[in-house]
Amino acid sequence: MHTPTPPARILPAVDMDTLPYWTGGKNGQLLIHRCGDCAYLVHPPVPFCPACDGRNVAPVPVSGRGRVTTFTINHKPWVPGLPVPYVLALVELEEQADVRLVSNITHCDPAEVTFGMAVEVYFEPVEDLYVPLFRPVERLA
Ligand SMILES: [Zn+2]
Questions:
Q1: How high is the pLDDT of residue 22?
Q2: Mind listing the pLDDT tens digit for each residue in 37-52?
Q3: Separation of 59 CA from ligand 1 center, angstroms?
Q4: Cα of 93 to ligand 1 centre, how many Å?
Q5: Domain housing 51
Q6: How far is the centre of ligand 1, averaged over its atoms, from the C-alpha of 38 (Å)?
Q7: Does residue 6 carry a pLDDT above 50?
Q8: Looking at the domain assignment, is residue 10 inside a domain?
Q9: Percentage, residues of the chain above pLDDT 90
Q10: What is the DSSP string of the chain?
Q11: Distance 67 CA to ligand 1 centre (A)
Q12: Is residue 5 part of a domain?
């Protein structure tokens, strides 16, 4: 089967639940679904709360700060236009450790990425979406 050439960044399939996550960057906000009844953060976003079974779930802005839980350095040019090596990581949010976002770590040498490294979100506009990516938190000297 012929596979068409993918774009520089493979865009997610976006639906009503995931749209806020992929577009909040337009306003500089990382939007994560939050339960209005028990305050549990729900990610990946679904319209109910796995903690209390409530339906009072809606996207709210979070700090965008977190830590690298695990990562791999990809050296293979799977995606044309995306330079290698790049870092594919799971980032746990400051607000709730079991909210783990699949993203890339940029703005540093891949060899400098460590487990537990503090990172912060920024957004890369791609077509109609704002892809949440992470970079090291600037440390004050
Ligand atoms: Zn809940």
A1: 96
A2: 999 999 999 999 999 9
A3: 13
A4: 18
A5: 19-136
A6: 4
A7: no
A8: no
A9: 80
A10: ---PPPPSSPPPPP-TTTHHHHHGGGGT-EEEEEETTT--EESS--SS-TTT--S-EEEEEE--EEEEEEEEEE-S--STTS-SSEEEEEEEESS-TT-EEEEEE-SS-GGG--TT-EEEEEEEEETTEEEEEEEEPPPP-
A11: 24
A12: no
